[in-house]
Amino acid sequence: MVSDFQNPVAGFGVTFKAMFKKRLTEQYPEEKKPTAPRFHGRHQLNRHPDGLEKCVGCELCAWACPADAIYVEGADNTDEERYSPGERYGRVYQINYLRCILCGLCVEACPTRALTMTNEYELADRSRASLIYTKEELLAGLQDGMVDTPHAIYPGMDEQDYYRGLVTEAAPGTTRQAAVSKGETLSDQAAGNEEVQA
Ligand code: SF4
Ligand code: SF4
Fold it and tell me: Where is this region: Disordered (predicted)?
């Protein structure tokens, strides 16, 4: 039993002990803590090593999503405008991060490993529209050896060869095709080609 006289001293004792405890306060956003390696963050739509897209527009991710956060519209590839090695590609792809609970079920459902999750967790914004990520925002950036879509399939290869790992970079001389179905003009295409070459 602590007497009235001892109360202030006992109170300071608690403060004194706390001074030597490990600090739990994090100085976010100035200091960002690294996430766990398998953290479920923002999604990414992956590419094959030559830049063609892995998404085949099958919508399995959308059907698997318990929050109805994914919207997909598939379309047919043509030889003049090819986005993926096979028959179909994801023409429209959206994830609504106001709905997404980052459970990862969509990633499990994807048959081509087109969809994975990154470690990026800063998904706050001020408008509803900016939190509906489009295909252009979700598509992985171009790495060395890749050419942006649309472009031709690697000569002599078929879709299966891509999944066997036989295509490791874009074929020499691969150039970007005109994205006619998306309303891209020839000047847009020229700008895109400059980006690819830069
Ligand atoms: S992580 Fe879960 S909630 Fe988010 S889009 Fe995928 S399935 Fe839907
Ligand atoms: S991300 Fe995967 S599951 Fe979703 S539409 Fe594309 S290929 Fe199908």
Answer: 174-198
**pLDDT level of residue 39 (50, 70, 90 thresholds):** very high
| Residue in 135, 134, 169 with CA at minimum distance from that of residue 46 | 135
Give the distance (Å) from ligand 1 centre to CA of residue 96. Answer: 9
Distance (Å, rounded) from C-alpha 174 to C-alpha 159? Answer: 17
CA of 197 to the centre of ligand 2 (A): 29
Q: How far is the CA of 157 from the centre of ligand 2 (A)?
A: 22
Best residue for ligand 1 mutational test, from 55, 63, 95 (most atoms within 8 Å of Cβ): 95
Catalogue all structural domains in the chain, each as residue range(s) with its CATH number.
43-167 (3.30.70.3270)
Closest residue by CA, ligand 2 atom 6: 55
Q: Is the pLDDT of residue 71 over 60?
A: yes
Mean pLDDT to the nearest integer, 125-134: 95
pLDDT digits (tens, 9 = 90+) for 55-67: 999 999 999 999 9
